[in-house]
Amino acid sequence: MTRAEIMPIVELLKPVTWFAPMWAFLCGAVSSGLPVNDRWPVLIAGVALAGPLVCGTSQAVNDWFDRHVDAINEPNRPIPSGRVPGRRGLYLAIGWTVLSMIVATTLGLWGFTAAILGLALAWAYSSPPIRLKRNGWWGNTAVAACYEGLPWFTGAAIMTAAFPHKQVLVVALLYSVGAHGIMTLNDFKSVDGDRRMGIDSLPVLLGVERAAWLACAVMAIPQIIVVALLLAWGQTIHGTIIVLLFVAQLLLMPRLLRDPQERAPWYNATGTSLYVLGMLVAAFALRNTQVLA
Questions:
Q1: CATH number of domain containing 59
Q2: Where are the alpha helices (DSSP H) in 66-165?
């Protein structure tokens, strides 16, 4: 394949979206409390699975089944622009799914199971007849789970070669719930096309202003609970750091709420970055806390 043919495929897989699940996977590995030692090959395979493979698959699947919406919202995307012609986008999504399952076999039972669940949600989110993204509540829940909770679980599971500790699961779940708000922010860019195509994203269902307030609340409440748990587990320093990161988010939210459609990308680069930094702080707190002993 020529460079002109390869670059649209890379764009289709959206490398910029890989960061979130890769970061969550590493948070899970850190939260396991175990040193890496000779687990490097498995850790690298897990990062690749979480980002370029499973997340890349989800992007290819979404772009194929969203090609008609993208023709309205983002006509320069690879498929509606014709740079990925014919059914090549669908074939890529299927091939990337198979490759992801092959790599997942190297990660043990829990790693493989989590990967299969993630791939199933990726297809269910975008493809008919399920197409979870038609409803913002269900669709955002699926994406949030795949971007945060599931990779966190996988990182912890492959490090311990066992089902993760309940404290790890609780924190991973809370950050996954908060990610539902992040997914709502991502929906602001496609409100017009979603309305025309009958996709009930939360900005369409609730209106832009109410959806923005909801997104902020959904991101905020889990962080407050995480702080309370860390303090209860004796992790005062880590809890305090997350409080500071959270306060910084609160200071940024009023600007977002004044014009959510215009400023959602800005908030994702600022407030959401502070959110994910808090995830790593919480992972180190879990690593240190005595409740994991």
A1: 1.10.600
A2: 67-73, 88-104, 108-126, 136-144, 150-160
CA-to-CA distance for 135 and 137, rounded, in angstroms? 6
Quote the DSSP letter at residue 135. B
End-to-end C-alpha distance for the chain, whole angstroms: 52
Number of domains making up the chain: 1
What does pLDDT average to over the chain? 92
- Reported as a single tens digit per residue, the pLDDT across 148-203 is 999 999 999 999 888 999 999 999 999 999 999 999 999 998 888 788 878 899 99
What per-residue confidence (pLDDT) applies to 147? 92
- The whole-angstrom separation of Cα 115 and Cα 107 is 9
Nearest Cα neighbor of 288 from 245, 244, 233 is 233
State the residue range of the domain holding 92: 3-292
Query: What's the pTM?
Result: 0.92
CB 291 within 8 A of CB 232: no
**What tens digit of pLDDT does each residue of 66-103 get?**
898 888 878 899 999 999 999 999 999 999 999 999 99
Q: Considering only the C-alpha atoms of the chain, give the largest distance between any 2 of them, rounded to a whole number of Å.
A: 57
Q: What kind and span of H or E run contains 206?
A: helix 202-206
Spatial contact of 268 and 219, defined as CB atoms under 8 Å apart? no
